[in-house]
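User: I'm new to structure prediction. If I give you an amino acid sequence, what do you actually give back? Let's try with this one:
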Amino acid sequence: MKRVLAVLGSIIVLAVLGGWIFLSTSSIGRIYLPTGTGITAKQTCSMMFVSGLDPVRARALYTDPLLGDFASLVRVDIDEEARTVSASALGFLGRQRAVYREGLGCTLVHGSGDFDAALSLPERPADTMTVDSAHRDAHFDSNALEAALDAAFTDDGRNTLGVAIFHQGRLVAERYADGVTAETPLHGWSMTKSLAATMAGVLVERGLIDINATGQVPALAEAGRPEITIDHLLRMTGGLAGYELNDGTDPNSQMLFTQSDMARYAATREQIAAPGERWDYQSGNTVLAGSALEPLMGDEPAGEVANLREWLFDPLGMNNSIVEADEAGTLQWSSYMYASARDWGRLGQLYLDGGRAPDGTQIIPEDWIDYVRQPTPGSDGDYGSGFWMFETGLPEGSFMMNGFQGQIAFIIPAAEMVVVRLGATNYRSSGSIALANAALAARLPEQPAQSLTEETPTEDAGQ
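Assistant: Good question. You get back a string of structure tokens that encode the predicted 3D arrangement of the chain. For your 463 residues, that looks like this:
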């Protein structure tokens, strides 16, 4: 009898605890459980199989700080042979499973989509870029650059994982945390939105798309909202309700961590404003914009990624970049690009090079930089199209890719520089602006070239 009572008591305790986790709405909301286990499964999978980080370290850096006390209740199960990661609360509640595929990264699989677990893409060539020390020493105080890197990697909780600094297209400085290399793809979060805006430029340059035309977004056309354009979506003026809080209770969290078809979910949100009338930052907009690009890139995920590589990544040498897809096969254009610090820098460099690849091929329109930097009404001048222009103290005309947990790439045309900082910063400053300003301050005064004229004597003239 005592044994029966003990079993019943355990069941009651678990039921009460499980019910509290799932039903509590006072602070975390009912969707916190599936979003909490979803982000843990997805991030652990990506950090382990895409970035190559130890899963315990990945959780400690990227997810546990976001979950707070709930993190201690989340159990992770890893099958290295099958390359899957499952997460659940107390071992059985809210179970979510992420599956890794070579070249496509990790996907949360809910069982409600058409998912090919066997799909894979070829490996990429190695990154052979090296720091151009001669160029660095000609244009920078190398000791000052090293000091800037030292400050960025201060052990104070900001968790900087990678920094790469480019000048005139040359790599002049880089540094990585333990376990991270120059070829480690790291999560860019919303820096991925800059990729979406860039890929739109690729298709415009190829004459394949008009971003201001109506009826080009399949999920919106199906939902009876053809008037919303790709431009509206890239600028966050689609007018759909999908507020973004990054706290596990908002529609954006639900989209990322509970939905098999993210574009369909975003397209069916309530219409709260006419297209173009209201700026409202939300990842669902960019998911929809990206979903409109994909039919022009291929008819299935492998073909789409193959063309993404051929049209953009390959010409720029971005060999350590992965864009993950949802279960329905749509690439996740708002949040799931993983790329090395060098590759993020190469993407920024494209804009400093007039939209051309290193071999001179025009990848995006030459004036696409003007498009992405044109302030969107309602954003207080801070947001263009997939890129930010908020106040940093950097030279006028600077703009940036910007992502959750301190991911940022500053593009500084006035100084011909790109400064990339990646990490896992939670609830504090990442120090990225200080890093960029320190890198700028490390530049040596430019010496104007002098031509030999009668007014410019030479040594042969006895001077």
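You can read the tokens as a compact description of the fold. Here is one thing that stands out. The chain has a mean pLDDT of 91.
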